[in-house]
Every structure is written in structure tokens, then in C-alpha cells.
Amino acid sequence: MSTNSHSSIRLVRHATLLVTVGETTFLVDPMLASPGANPPIQDTPNQRDNPLVPMPDVGLTYDAVVVTHRHTDHFDEAAKAALDPDVPLFCQPADEGAFVEDGFTDVRPIDDGAVFDGITIHRTPGRHGHGELAEKMAPVSGFVFEGDETLYIAGDTIWYDEIAETLERFDPDTVVLNAGEARFDYGEPITMGVADVTAVREATDARVVAVHMEAINHCLLTRDELRANTENVRIPEDGELITL
Prior knowledge:
Elements lengths: L7 E6 L2 E6 L2 E5 L35 E3 L10 H6 L6 E3 L4 H6 L5 E3 L3 E4 L2 E7 L5 H7 L3 E6 L3 E4 L7 H10 L3 E5 L15 H10 L3 E5 L11 H7 L11 E3 L1
Parallel strand pairs: 3-4, 4-5, 5-6, 10-11, 11-12
Antiparallel strand pairs: 1-2, 1-13, 2-3, 7-8, 8-9, 9-10
């Protein structure tokens, strides 16, 4: 078990988080590769190798793993190699078979909800872009953790009606958004930009935290740009701890 006794979120890098609820810590969306070890996301405005930045010097101590979806910037070969194959691993049902094929022995797909160490975990919907591109990128999920605090990890999604419905249903204390306005050479952005983050900020009284920036070649919205164009949004640096 982890030794933390207070709820917190630590941004590791990109969408990789250490989410602690009470005394239980979840490693979310582990992308653990060294800089430049993964190829660029194709059909994007630049072709830099990923990740663009190193891992911060933080200890990865956790009780379970949660993967919102299996795109390489949320679960990569380095994570596959580094994780204990017996770790409890929560995922969307569509990804169960791939994790079993990877050799993980305690895969726990969540259809609607599950309980772990007294924490209730709900899977929530997401829309990874617009129109046909969103269909191509699907399926993706978010997750809500209910314990001493209620945390909503929205995952790779834009703002749309079901995000508003999730906020209303769970009334979270903290919302973590994947920003960066990731995009391809065609179509609209596939993760949140300024307008999406602002819409979430206006829809909830929760603490709003924005991550998923400056680490992958097709995430073009920077932290400074998001800070300059939003209000009351926490935008942590890699490795930063937010105590809830």
C-alpha cells in the first residue's frame, strides 16, 4: 500500500498521473519512454520524435494502474515492460484483450463501475475529436474516483454534452482535463483547447486541472497559451504535486 494519507494528483508527464485518494494511489495512463524513443504521431504539423521531454524525478509508487485508452501516448512499450504483470489494471472493456495478450494477469475492465480499496471507480464517456475523426479515434474513456474526494479524469475528449452530464452526475471536487489541442494535418483538434477548457470551467465549481501539454509532437497548445487565455485553471508542470 502507498503511505500517502491525503488525496492528491501528481502530474508525471503528459497524461501520466499519480492519483491518490485517501491512502490508495493509481498510476493513470503510463507513458514511460525516454525522450525520442517513440516515433512521431503521423499526419501532424511537425514530425518530432516522442516524448519531447524527459520523465521528471518522481517515484512511481502505486497500488493499481488505470488506462483510459491504449493510444501510444497513454500506454507505451516502456510501460508494458516496466509494470508488474500482476498489478491490478483497470481499463475500458474494449482494451481488455490487448492487455491480457501483453501478459497482464489482473486486468479489470470497467463497464460502469468497480470498487478497489474502498474507492469506487466509474467509467465515463469521451469523444476524441469531431465527426469521422472522433469515430476513428474511438473508443476512449474517462474515469471518476469516489472516496474522500471525488476526482474526474476526463481522458482524451473534447467538450460535448456528455461531459456536462458527467459533471452534473458526479459533482466532482476536482476535474483533470487533457488539453494540448492535439491535432492532425486535417480536421479539428482531438483534445481540449482554450474553448473546451473554458466550457468546463464555466460548467463546474470544481477545481480544474489541465495536463497533456508540451510532451507529444501533435499537442500544439502550450501551457503559457492556456494560462493566458483561461482563468482559475491549475496548469501544473511535470512532476508537480497538487494536494486536494
